[in-house]
Amino acid sequence: MLQKLRAKKGQKGFTLIELMIVVAIIGILAAIAIPNFLTYQKKSKSSEAKTCIGGIKTSQLSFAAEKDHHAVCAPLVANPPNTNKQIWPAQGACGGFDSIGWRPAGDVYYLYECSTGADANGNPAVCISAKSDLDGDSIFGAFGFATDVATIATTTTVATPVTKNSQVEDLAPGQY
Fold first, then answer.
1. Which strands sit side by side in the sheet containing 169-170, from one edge to the other?
2. Which of 33, 65, 135, 149 lies 20 to 30 A from 19 at CA?
């Protein structure tokens, strides 16, 4: 019976040391890959803000062409969303966003707002902002767009001035 439990000479297989080395290598690769994956995941979530600001901009410009002013779109909640998506309110409960005819395709990670005014020539101007804390570190990531940076450059939820005229700008680079 004892003979059967002992390994036969020439038997193939891995030693315990070899298996421990493989497990260690997999652990090192995972330690490198997981943080990079999480960073790419946050970057992909932040693309929502750029896309939605572009849609809001188009809706605001259409609204202004028809009404000769932009619509003020207040934030729909008191606090910006964090790592979880937030349900966009039902049609009719979105104030200025309903008046410009803009609605996101689904739930959102960001808090959106539009402030309005006029440029130096009296033409309507708008500043659109998006703010969120995707990584839960209490430091907000923000994006902004302004049609006239000299007149309107901030909203109440994002105090960082938008410096690029007519381009969506990352107002907090490296923050999510």
1. 111-118, 124-132, 141-146, 169-170
2. 33
